[in-house]
Amino acid sequence: xxxxxxxxxxxxxxxxxxxxxxxxxxxxxxxxxxxxxxxxxxxxxxxxxxxxxxxxxxxxxxxxxxxxxxxxxxxxxxxxxxxxxxxxxxxxxxxxxxxxxxxxxxxxxxxxxxxxxxxxxxxxxxxxxxxxxxxxxxxxxxxxxxxxxxxxxxxxxxxxxxxxxxxxxxxxxxxxxxxxxxxxxxxxxxxxxxxxxxxxxxxxxxxxxxxxxxxxxxxxxxxxxxxxxxxxxxxxxxxxxxxxxxxxxxxxxxxxxxxxxxxxxxxxxxxxxxxxxxxxxxxxxxxxxxxxxxxxxxxxxxxxxxxxxxxxxxxxxxxxxxxxxxxxxxxxxxxxxxxxxxxxxxxxxxxxxxxxxxxxxxxxxxxxxxxxxxxxxxxxxxxxxxxxxxxxxxxxxxxxxxxxx
Amino acid sequence: xxxxxxxxxxxxxxxxxxxxxxxxxxxxxxxxxxxxxxxxxxxxxxxxxxxxxxxxxxxxxxxxxxxxxxxxxxxxxxxxxxxxxxxxxxxxxxxxxxxxxxxxxxxxxxxxxxxxxxxxxxxxxxxxxxxxxxxxxxxxxxxxxxxxxxxxxxxxxxxxxxxxxxxxxxxxxxxxxxxxxxxxxxxxxxxxxxxxxxxxxxxxxxxxxxxxxxxxxxxxxxxxxxxxxxxxxxxxxxxxxxxxxxxxxxxxxxxxxxxxxxxxxxxxxxxxxxxxxxxxxxxxxxxxxxxxxxxxxxxxxxxxxxxxxxxxxxxxxxxxxxxxxxxxxxxxxxxxxxxxxxxxxxxxxxxxxxxxxxxxxxxxxxxxxxxxxxxxxxxxxxxxxxxxxxxxxxxxxxxxxxxxx
Lengths: 405, 405
What we know:
The structure is a homodimer. By secondary structure, chain A is of the alpha/beta class. Chain A has 2 domains: 12-305, 2-Layer Sandwich (BirA Bifunctional Protein, domain 2), CATH 3.30.930; 317-404, Anticodon-binding domain (Rossmann fold). Chain A has 17 helices and 15 strands. Chain A has helices at 12-31, 45-51, 54-57, 75-82, 126-143, 155-164, 171-178, 181-184, 186-197, 201-204, 214-221, 226-238, 298-305, 326-338, 352-361, 372-377, 395-404; strands at 35-36, 42-44, 68-70, 91-100, 112-121, 148-154, 243-244, 258-264, 271-277, 291-297, 317-321, 343-345, 366-370, 380-384, 390-393. In chain A, the strands form 3 sheets. The first copy, chain A, has an 8-stranded mixed β-sheet with strand order 1-4-5-10-9-8-6-7, sandwiched between helices. In chain A, strands 12-11-13-14-15 form a 5-stranded mixed β-sheet, sandwiched between helices. A two-stranded antiparallel sheet of chain A has the order 2-3. In chain A, helix 14 links the parallel strand 11 (317-321) and strand 12. In chain A, helix 1 (12-31) runs antiparallel to helix 5 and helix 11 (214-221) packs antiparallel against helix 12. The longest helix of chain A has 20 residues, at 12-31. Chain A is elongated. Chain A starts with 11 loop residues before the first helix and ends with a helix. The mean pLDDT of chain A is 94. Chains A and B meet through helix 1, strand 1, strand 2, helix 2 and helix 4 of A and helix 1, strand 1, strand 2, helix 2 and helix 4 of B.
């Protein structure tokens, strides 16, 4: 029987890599005072659709004969909880978990995929943005990703520019085209947007294509979008390591202020984390509050990190036993575990050669052998499976050896 | 907007308790050489229904316009993976995760609930049972549960007794009634089963009601069920800490050999872990292999452990800043984090009193204050939030103080 389309099984070597990455992210988030929150897989469809655009609504896994669907991101459940629970503000939560979207699976895109989100609810200050950007940068660096840049813009700036020129309709279409500037180029964007912007094209479009230092770009935009520019400057005073990019839009819908994206600068040029401010969203779910969040795309990050040095099991020692000495082997394994060393014994009743084969196939680094000689002398024979070196000694000495590697 | 029926949100204090329990279980499983495996939430309905009885089939969350449903346990996905992947045998995996059943929610019963499973695929030896029982006992003890007993029986013994007396039909009904012996009493079970067992009632039923030491019961059953009795004796030679209970059945369906259950002996008399051998199951999913597994019921266990000493956040230190000294506070927080101490700063721009209120509401144990005096003298003022004691010292000295608690 087969796995369902777009779903994955994570086998032990992959899981070991994933667990390590999740732990790194969670530890970093906790260092900044973020707290874990977990929400269910299933939500009312009305909850899911309150925020999602049409695109997402068409991608929901809906439950038969019910008004339920599977969550498609972690921001919706957070918003529902935060808008209906009283927490000391700001409420800073993280969540690492799967989300589900009924899209056509492609290379690197799945129907069940994992996100690692951190959000701050209850602060309208740019300090919140600064914290998320610093924390995400640190997480990615600790994961081993070094080649990235942080792009940042503000929806307030985007909106204000259009308002300044009196352009009210078609905003979403304009933004959607603008967002493609790094893919299709400025010229192409210009051509596409000219009909919508009309006489103002030559005034507006260059504003989204500014080059140079952040401050230079901000100065050029100040008269059109003073509030948004002030916020970006405020942020820069706390966390300066971003590139202000006036054409960045980040999807559509609920963002109301800053938007940001972590992009690869090495071989990989895509995005592997992003987020922004969504001050209006919580109101849809209960009580309003300003909020800002970031989401690390776990799949992308793990793909970039590539395969770890091969490790197939957490087991440190396989305790091989000769016939009639299994119970002695069990005792040895128990002593090892008490010292925090993970140990396996033979559960099948195989001969010693096959026990070694098993240890080898899992790349277990040490084998301890218990037979008549060892049981009578109260010693153990220990073999380093990499070097093949073998010696007989007390269990205490063997433990020291295992720990020293 | 409301949470869906039978679903739960786990808020930070609960999550901290859960994360601790999950870590304890996972660490214990790893010590025994079990490896993590993760499978998707969604499986083909044919996969889910291959094993489940009618009862479970009626409890599936099915996905609209598809042949998919949400997993209702962790054994089905394990069986699918193990029967279709080549692993060194025995394959020992653990998985801690949610499962979904569309039952009517009751007190302590939810539609999304968590299980912590460990299974051994590829060993027909009682060594596998011994390992699971030892490992589960150790996990429960480490979690703080001490009042429990392990009940064990064998489906081979149950089946052989009926075969011995030539009773072939109605086996499931007989087992179902037998399983209730500790609830409704022997007399009641006798009355219910007499019509089905007929003339053999007085020979068969006392066999399920044997009292005394394990060996005495096994002796009494030996002539009716030699193979099953031999297996239980073999297990006892390796792991003796169980009570052989001839009336234990454990649900219905796929169990083929040993069945076992961890039951409370203190205030709580219910079961909080159980499992058994299912040698025939994997064949349904691909290639057959003997298998045995145990499942810890996380919800029950956490309920029994009760509320932990109140802890609302992982944060160790709140760095409070006076106006104009926020960036100095950020630097202090960064230094603390580098030393592995989790630290928060004020993200809202509140006055010092409100910053203290926030730290107090989250029960953060330490507050470090940065103002003009501190910034100029390159020292910090540190307050122990429990005792109220405050002193001004170098950051290094403050870190020592925080660590010593």
